[in-house]
Automatic annotation (TrEMBL):
Statement: the UniProt record of this protein carries the keyword Transport: yes
Recorded family membership: Belongs to the bacterial solute-binding protein 1 family.
Organism: Pseudonocardia aurantiaca
Domain of life of the native organism: Bacteria
Matching InterPro entries: SBP (IPR006059)
Stated name of the protein: ABC transporter substrate-binding protein
Keyword Transmembrane in annotation: yes
Gene3D superfamilies tied to this protein: Periplasmic binding protein-like II (3.40.190.10)
Protein keywords: Membrane, Signal, Transmembrane, Transmembrane helix, Transport
Record field: transmembrane: 12-36
Pfam families: SBP_bac_1
Amino acid sequence: MTSDDRYQHVPVIWGSLGTIFGVVVVLLATAVAALVTDPTAFEDGEIVVLSGRDDSIGGQRQALIDQWNALHPDNRARIVELSELADAQRSEMLARAQSGRGEIDVYNLDVTWTAEFAEAGHIKKLDEPRPQTDGFLDGPLATCRYHGSLWALPFNTDVGLLFYRSDLVPHPPATWEQLEADVQRVREETGNAVDGYAGQLADYEGLTVTALEAMWGAGGSVVDDEGEVVDGAPFQAAMAGLGRLRAIAPAGVPALDETESLSLFRSGRALFMRNWPVAYRSLTQDAEGGSPLQIGVAPLPGQLDVLPGKGVLGGQNLAVSALSTRPRAAQALIEFLTSERSQQLLFERGGLPATREVVYFDQGVRDNHPYTETLRDAIDDARLRPVEPHYARFSEVFRAAVEGYLRRGTEIPDGFPEQLAHALQGRSAPPGEG
């Protein structure tokens, strides 16, 4: 298989053996999902899940909750939805956890918050009894661990993907240089000042993610695999990647979030878009009365075989509140929501990538999501943001400098690596620096 074949948006044709395997797996998963834990061992009462907005197609998270409620009428679950803004969600969740009222049983945490909530004692370890973790994808499960303990189970995963206009770009770019060349070629051929790369560029976590991916794609790094902030050559390469992001972003580097990036790409203004997998369903089903765009999906660019592109691993994790008065029931709900059958429904119907490996081999899933193989490869290659309790502070410091550089032309400050190191350790900025 060539690299071009690998990223085509045509479904992969699997043999009858694969189809039979998928059917058997689904049947087994369906049977297991209803028998997560002995219901007689549950504490009485409603299970309250605190979560951000359900971005799945057709509200599939609530659909799974409805299934649980039908099976467990004495332990009905209820989702309490917070603001759609991630920073506001985190603030509200921390406030609820610190209140001491014990009104929440399950937190649906962004993967970057799990370490913070574990360190603060807001969630409990999943070890009484310890759930089975066989079958989860390695990356998503790694976001649930902190200091060697399991604190959550992965509800859905996510990874940055490259969406492109396949009618104008026959083959997805493997490198950022190729992406830039494609933009220049299309501009010359059409006489149209088409925008190059619509990423998430507003001042929120989306900017951190978009910038990190551009830095990694240039062979650079900001934090190494041991959680240490880097300097020297890796940091300089990262700055080069940031400069390239400024060059290929839409004119003026507008403050785009996921929805605004999608609108810009759908309008035909942008040749490429960085977004999460759930954007695929919107692009192929919502044509706003016109013909659907001809789109392809590929991993983010990198440096050919020397350094393939890597997306940021995202997603949400389900954790039991340390103050819950029904922890056994809460854990059983989490196991139900993360079971193979639940994960298949969440992905196949809702567009949120599954955390269970077997789902990616199901023929029905592959037929409905032609980019499944590309998605699975991207998840396997994805990188984690620092798994540290002070990550939120690190992200604030990081994107404040990046936002100034991209949008206002402000230079990255001297001593920036040291500022990031202090933020990651939960310390204030070095003396004399903001």
